User: Fold this.
Amino acid sequence: MRLRAVPAVLATAVLLLTAGCSSGDGGPPGTDGSASPGDTATRSPSPGRSAEPTPPAKGSVKVVRTVAEGLNSPWGLAPVPGGDLLVSSRDEATITRVDPATGEKTELGEVPGVSPSGEGGLLGIALSPAYASDRMIYAYFTSASDNRVVRMIHDEDKPAGEQLGAPDTVFRGIPKGVIHNGGRIAFGPDRMLYVGTGESGDTGLSQDKESLGGKILRLTPEGEPAPGNPFPDSPVYSYGHRNVQGLAWDREQRLFASEFGQNTWDELNAIRPGGNYGWPQAEGRSDEGGFRNPVEQWRTDEASPSGIAHAEGSVWMAGLRGERLWRIPLKGTAASAEPQAFLEGEYGRLRTVVAAGDDRLWLVTSNTDGRGDPEDGDDRILELRVR
Assistant:
């Protein structure tokens, strides 16, 4: 493994380019950079099930192997029943199937209507809860006019490059911008679709409950506001966010989300339905009433978090600008020990992390996104064993 060295002149340039926006995300140099429908942050253990034990204060990470190399601007990752992985390319607007045993890559096809620019493009992907029967792939992408969620049939009987059916738009109208397009989507344990959005650089949208920007949305698989949402007839599940790119649930079906700060604090939040997470009035912890404080916070050069996953009693958080994987051990919705950093500088920018079993994670690097320092073989999918 090679540590990445950034020349002083380049480091200074990157610092100037990212000042005022810690997203560390996507754009080319020169851009600014089943859970119950009730209180998922405080849900009690299921009947007959013991509460999750407190994880040890100190953990460990071992890189088991490199699963795949040579990926261009990878963003979303979705494991397929049977073991293969689907990965989206932000800039090429393609979805590729990876055989984790051999690293062989097969392009399913290109998603039409994607308009890659800045931090936008083809972002998160997720499989339908009924994928085994309906073969539906959901995708979040930036179009010429907005950010939206579509679904497509995956037809494996067709030739490579032609396996994606025509996209059916499930949800549209999410504000787009050069920056802060959000993009993470995930089906929760309740089989509802959760969508992390950004405020597209317009900070006023985050506190506006009528806007879809700077929110976590909760939808039915058909794109309607999910039953039990906190605001009547609204898809909004939580608000006051700046740019949400990580969603994960713990064993007790509590939802956590990562969020980019601006100049001061990045956040990991425990999400409550109807909760206000403070942006733009609050960045990080705040004494102001009515805002929910983060579980943990980081200086923006240490994190700029994108994807998160839950494994072994901890949330694992991928850092872009921070170029490290954070472990946040949990007791309920509180941190039970100080966060630990792993892989610092070893693989560059880290975009997406997905649980791959009780003690395994898939980790996706992000060095070909226009802000990274690519090396031979970038970008990669890694398999990790964690504790």
